Amino acid sequence: MPRSxxxxxxxxxxxxxxxDEALRxxxxxxxxxxxxxxxxxxxxxxxxxxxxxxxxxxxxxAKGRPSFNPLICHVDGPEMAAxxxxxxxxxxxxxxxxxxxxxxxxxxRSDTCPVSELATAGLSSIAVRSPAHPVALELIRQVGxxxxxxxxxxxxxxxxxxxxxxxxxxxxxxxxVLDGGTCLAGIESTIxxxxxxxxxxxxxxxxxxxxxxxxxxxxxxxxxxxxxxxxGMMRRHYAPRARLRLNATTVGAGEAFLAFGPSPAxxxxxxxxxxxxxxxxxxxxxxxxxxxxxxxxxxxxIAPIPNEGLGEGINDxxxxxxxxxxxxGV
Length: 330
Ligand code: TXA
Ligand code: MG
Known about the structure:
alpha/beta, DHBP synthase, Rossmann fold, four-stranded parallel sheet, binds threonylcarbamoyladenylate
């Protein structure tokens, strides 16, 4: 099968401002059961040694996250993944093409998997990914174990794309945050389940459906398949306080307008996700712009965003951020 163009060079980001000593200290902290705010190319994660049940329990407590919602285990490559999960040919091809990078694979847990049952919420499957951020990769290497890391926000709040967001959101719950700069991708990893015969896209994200389908063929959606779901795909998620109005082509009194591309002549954009209509730029700006508008406005009108390529992941986040009325969440 012909190879598609390489994904954006997440790993080639500028050298982050994290000293060797800070990295060593973070690794020691993780090995003694502590939590670390860890930069990745998607969003910041709240990391713990995935093999240490107590450390993993501290993640759930710090986030206020229900413990039925499993965590992604971050590995330094396919070899560490193979110690945790049963890897088939499809998984190998995807790892070869997208790792390190923003693709999480849900695979059967291996019999000898060292990861705590709490991290996988007692499921017989496990989500693994190798992050394309030099700080995250080096941290995993130094710890020598998989790191369980959900996004480093309180449950249901907006995901953090800077170290400052983590500190503002988690405060003392994340006593040490490594500042690896602003996350380049800006939305979370794409999650693909390879548990059944047909691959299922559980969450759209920073690798597009098309890129994945070029490697392993059609992806089904959780609805059309036989009950494979991601426990974390709660309808309400990423919730700002402000009311959101989607596909907006007008702006009401007191509303901020979050534009994408050129705005209609009658509207002045409060912020623009991407003036040049670039979806990668919009993804990178999404959470920080929502945060900024949320701190200043009661209501935010968001311009339509095409639902293709990275737009699928962006629209998924916006829809769930606007789902206040549908579900209270936990
Ligand atoms: O980009 C990302 O994926 C970020 C960074 C930090 O790596 N992490 C992240 O983690 O978004 P979190 O916890 O916010 O989202 C993980 C999602 C949840 O929806 C969870 O239900 C799902 O992954 N998940 C984890 N293990 C699973 C499994 N075994 N089966 C199905 N879904 C799983
Ligand atoms: Mg999250």
